[in-house]
Structures are given as C-alpha cells and as structure tokens.
Amino acid sequence: MGFLQLLSVASFPVIKVLLITAVGLFLALDDISILGEDARKKVNQLVFYVFNPSLVGTNLAKTITLESVVQLWFMPFNILSTFVLGSALGWILIKITRPPKHLEGLILGCCSAGNLGNLPIIIIPAMCKESGSPFGDPDVCYQYGMAYASLSMAIGAVYIWSYVYNIMRISSTRTQKEDGSSNDNSIMKASGGTSESLSHHFSQTLNPTKDTMDDAYTLLLPEAESEKKVSISSKIKNRVRVISSNLNFKAMFAPSTIGAIAGFLIAVISPLRNLIIGSGAQLHVVQESISMLGEAAIPTVTLIMGANLLKGLKGSSTPVWTLVGIVAVRYIFLPVLGVAVVKAAIHLSFVPSDALYQFVLLLQHALPPAMNIGTIAQLFGVGESECSVIMLWTYALAAIAVTLWSTLFMWLVS
C-alpha cells in the first residue's frame, strides 16, 4: 500500500475529530453559550460516570476472552513506558527552559500522560471503516479496535490518577508553601469558585498529604538542599513506605476502570458471558441498553473536548519555549522512543503478530496530552490558564502530527 493511500486513511479520522471539535468550540462561545462552563461540567460528569464506563465495559465484555487477555499483557507495560519516558523528557525540558515553579508539575503531567482513551476510541474505529485500511475486514477490525482502545482508556485512567495526580499535587503544594499563606488565598481567588468547590468535593476522596518532602514523586521535581545526609537505601525505603501509605485507591479506580473490571469479569467468566452477551442471551437487553449508552460517549467527548479548548484562545502567559518543548516531546521524541520500545517487544516476541494491536501500541506514544490534566490543574487551582493554552496548541497540531505518525505506524505494521 502506497504512502499517499495510507496518508489518506490516517487523515480522514483526524479531520472528523477536528470538525466535531470545532462544533464544540462554537457551541462554547459566549454569544452561543450552549456549552457554557456550567453545561460543560454537567456533561463532563455524565460522560465520566455513565458514558465512558458503559463504552469500556461493553466493548471489553464483547471482545475479550481469557486467551486474548494473555496476549494483551504487554499493553499495561507499554502505557507505563509512555509515562516513564515522558516524565524523563519533561524533567529534561524543565532543566533546559527553567519555567516558573508553579508550572513544573503541569509540564511533567503534559509530557507523561497522553490521551489514551478518547482519541484512540475515536480514531481507531474510523480507520477500520476507511476503504484501503491495512487492518482487514472492517467489522472485525472495529470490534477488536474498540476493545484495544477501551483497555487503553482503563489503564490510562489508573496511571493518570495514581501517578500524574500526585506529581501535580506535590508541585502545587510546594509552590503554595514557597509563596506563603497570602499567595494561597490569592491563588484560590484567582481560580474562582470552581476550584474551591472542587477542592472541597475531593478533599475526602483524594486526601492530599501535608508533608511532601519524603514523597517518591518529588524525585522528578527540583529539590532544595537537604540539611542532613541520609543513605540512599534509607531514602528509597522511606519513599516506598510513604508512597504506599498515601496511594489513594478511590481516586485510581475511576468509573472507566470499574467499567473495565466489570467487562473483564463478564468476558472471562463463561456463565456470565452466556447470560448477558449475544443476541441469544437471556439478559441481552441489559447488554444492548448499556451499549446504547456507550455509543453516546464518542460524539459527546469530542464536543466537550472542543468546548474545553475555548479558554486557550483567550491567551495566557505560558512561556513560548516551554510550549514548544512540550510539543516536541509529545510529537517528536516520545513517538521515536515508542517505535523503539514496540519494535523491541515484537523482536522479543512479547507482542503477537496482530497489525491492529501493534498499531495501537505505537499510537499510544504519539497522542496529545490527556484532557484529565486540565481537571487536575483546576482541582489544585494552579496553571489553569496555561494548561488551556497547552491543550489548544497540542490538539491543534495533533491534526498534522497524529496523521503523519499514524501513516508511518500503518506502514510499519502492514
């Protein structure tokens, strides 16, 4: 298959995303205000608690089997590699560009966490339906592509809320400590009632720790000189102890993750699967009803993604070189490293010879930052406007970057 044909197959799904995103942006304009701030909050909650879990659960239940679970074991490690490599590149970017202190956690978050759920769920099925796709029968491709994308969304949610959340929490806490109590009040006022209400709402669930100096995640952030020297082994033991005691499992198990667990259980337990899945199942109406809810996730998420970019159009004081660095990390360095990781896994026979599965693994390294980073920034009231600008430019450039990388990835696996 020629390069131009692959480029055509890769570009149409991204163009569809851009068109629906533009509609969402238009609906969020002040003069239209159909997707105003309050409406976005409500619709986001609907997607987060209802649509996404339904989509993830039904797709996994319909397509995953006990044998395929064994074949898919590499995906969690591949996604973990995107976070680890992205964090390392983000740390280097911070050292080079010297951004303001309050942006350090945001930069690490944007470099490490990609949009592992919404975009793959939109792009992969659309590619399957395009004529000339290298992934074979469109129906079979769609079925398995949705399962891979759903699994990606569930695993990504766990990593974001266990890893990125803690990095941004520590960064914001350090910034507030350095600025003093007066700056604490000004930050909360500047972020408005939204951050106050969010902080109050999540205070019991997320439970930010007061002392972050012994937290293992602080290794990624610039650190002041310690007053007394401690052995490396003692530091490691102490940090492992602190992080294990402060991991918040309630935050890690987002509704999408719970939906994935439910889908897995139904898929691998034969009596449950026979009872619920398939047109001849006794409770097939339950599966079809949940599937109908899940189908609403993709267009709704895309509209909200466009509406959330509106704040970025209004501008902020985001350092230009920091923004350029994040774009370079997400669309140049991380995809190149991702090709090396996946190719090494294929060479070592860790990954089966499934072109679609290999494509999904590669795509996970070439996505824009996760939209949940904006939610976390809003939660702590630090870097909200800068986050909006970063999202605006990274998603605008995704039209070119994701298309080109998708074309290359299809060429590599076909």
TrEMBL record:
Signal peptide range in chain numbering: none
Q: What are the transmembrane regions? A: 12-34, 72-94, 106-127, 147-168, 247-270, 331-350, 356-380, 392-413
Topology versus the membrane: Multi-pass membrane protein
State its location(s).
Answer: Endoplasmic reticulum membrane
Keywords tagged on the record = Auxin signaling pathway, Endoplasmic reticulum, Membrane, Transmembrane, Transmembrane helix, Transport
Give residue spans, biased composition: Polar residues: 182-202
Q: For this UniProt entry, what's an example GO CC term?
A: endoplasmic reticulum membrane
Q: Which GO terms describe its biological process?
A: auxin-activated signaling pathway; endoplasmic reticulum to cytosol auxin transport
* Region annotation Disordered: where it falls in the sequence: 175-202
Q: Which family does it belong to?
A: Belongs to the auxin efflux carrier (TC 2.A.69.2) family.
| Function as written in the Swiss-Prot or TrEMBL entry | Involved in cellular auxin homeostasis by regulating auxin metabolism. Regulates intracellular auxin accumulation at the endoplasmic reticulum and thus auxin availability for nuclear auxin signaling.
Identify this protein by name: Protein PIN-LIKES 3
**Organism for this UniProt entry:** Phaseolus coccineus
The major lineage groups are: Eukaryota, Viridiplantae, Streptophyta, Embryophyta, Tracheophyta
